[in-house]
Amino acid sequence: MNKETSILVVEDENIVALSIKNKLISLGYSVPSTASSGEDAITKADLFYPDLVLMDIMLRGDMDGIEAANEIRIKFDIPVIFLTAYTDDRTLERAKVAEPYGYISKPFKEQDLKSNIEIALHKHGKELRLK
């Protein structure tokens, strides 16, 4: 595991965002920032250029996490993992369009979070080397 791996947390509930941030730090990742809206997520992805974005689907503002993840993928080519309580078929179908590197349902286990992050980073790194 790379201690320098930075992850942007996008979650509209502050307590949940803080909890996720603390879990990530305890796993050895850095969290340069958190965002609570899709628009904020795009701004902070541009500002901090994290290695990965953990994105909730339901967010404050006009843009949901799926739209924000799509923008982040297109503009910055940063891998996104959805971390959400929404696992219905309609949401899942919409989420596929953003080409996420993972989809973790809440509540989640710390080990599931870590393994999804490591696989996403590995896969994205491999894709970058192929380009």
Automatic annotation (TrEMBL):
Signal peptide limits: none
BP terms from Gene Ontology: phosphorelay signal transduction system
Alphabetically ordered keywords of this record: Phosphoprotein
Listed CDD domains: REC_DC-like (cd17534)
Cell membrane found in the keyword field: no
4-aspartylphosphate carried by residues: 56
Stretches assigned to the Response regulatory domain: 6-121
Superkingdom, natural source: Archaea
Pfam families: Response_reg
Record-linked PANTHER family: RESPONSE REGULATORY DOMAIN-CONTAINING PROTEIN (PTHR44591:SF3), STRESS RESPONSE REGULATOR PROTEIN 1 (PTHR44591)
Protein name (database record): CheY-like chemotaxis protein
Species lineage: Archaea, Methanobacteriati, Methanobacteriota, Stenosarchaea group, Methanomicrobia
